[in-house]
């Protein structure tokens, strides 16, 4: 069996080789590519002879899959799999497994880093201090006593809700699956948007969640509200968000994801919105998370080779 790692996974190649080899032993040939190539021709050339490919958030479209007749499994070193053509994989009976859970702590940490950074004006405070100024005009807010709305209570959303509780916030949640979470009140999406001071998004990107937050939803939010999106860019209508920020319909937004992956085009309108904190999709990117996902990928490969695949998306 041939396993091809199509892109770097965020840890030293020697460490990755050791982790994978410890699970696979001599049962497969493993090929590592130290660079990321997104063009179809290169991806086909690298994948054509593989039974298993490993990738992170590298786009893996139908045009590639159709030209790889030996391909049996795709191991996605990521939580979301919207960058892989799942319908094509289902048609060809290709198993797809993800790394759910590896970035739960990392993403939740970023949510509160963003919230605190925005509420306490940290970027402006740092600039002011370097300019020998004072705190005048930069007095912020506390999380305690705020109403924190969590959209989606999967693993990450649940962790965010628990941390919000620890800060002394009142937590509202909206999710397709209701869990018995302590000190969390489930409400409709409309009620959550109307009542929350902070709205944090934690749902996957699907046809049902595309533009889940658009003009109508933003109009429901408080003028003092903060929107945080560390999930997927397509869940929020960027044009509607830009309009809401320019017109002061909400106080601000903290965004780690856009429909376009970084580097972003200079003329992308949302980048010029006021009261916007934006990061280049770093929610998952911590040293610990990279190590966790390498181990999960290795376990996914081992389980698949033993005929008992885990973390299955399809197949």
Features:
315 residues, seven-stranded parallel β-sheet, six-stranded mixed β-sheet, 11 helices
Give helix and strand order, one letter per element, not per position.
EHEHEHEHEHHEHEEHEHEHEEHE
Rg, rounded, reads 21 Å
What class would the helix/strand composition place it in? alpha/beta
Q: Give the rounded overall mean pLDDT.
A: 96
The protein's oligomeric status is single chain
Instruction: Name the helicity range.
Output: 25-40%
DSSP, total strands:
13
Biggest sheet architecture: 7 strands, parallel
Adjacency order of strands in the biggest sheet: 8-7-6-9-10-11-12
Termini separation comes to 18 Å
Strand content: 15-25%
The best one-word shape is elongated
DSSP summary: helix tally: 11
Q: Give unreliable regions as ranges.
A: none
Short description, anyone?
This protein has 315 residues and is an alpha/beta fold. The protein has helices at 13-24, 40-47, 62-65, 86-91, 104-119, 122-130, 155-166, 189-195, 215-220, 238-246, 287-305, and strands at 2-5, 29-32, 52-55, 73-76, 95-97, 147-151, 170-174, 184-186, 198-201, 226-229, 252-255, 276-278, 312-314. β1 (2-5), α1 (13-24) and β2 form a beta-alpha-beta unit.
Please provide a written account of the structure.
The protein has 315 residues and is an alpha/beta fold. The protein is built from 11 helices and 13 strands. The strands form 2 sheets. It has a 7-stranded parallel beta sheet, with helices on both faces. Strands 2-1-3-4-5-13 form a 6-stranded mixed beta sheet. The mean pLDDT is 96.
Write the SSE topology.
Blueprint: E1 2-5, H1 13-24, E2 29-32, H2 40-47, E3 52-55, H3 62-65, E4 73-76, H4 86-91, E5 95-97, H5 104-119, H6 122-130, E6 147-151, H7 155-166, E7 170-174, E8 184-186, H8 189-195, E9 198-201, H9 215-220, E10 226-229, H10 238-246, E11 252-255, E12 276-278, H11 287-305, E13 312-314
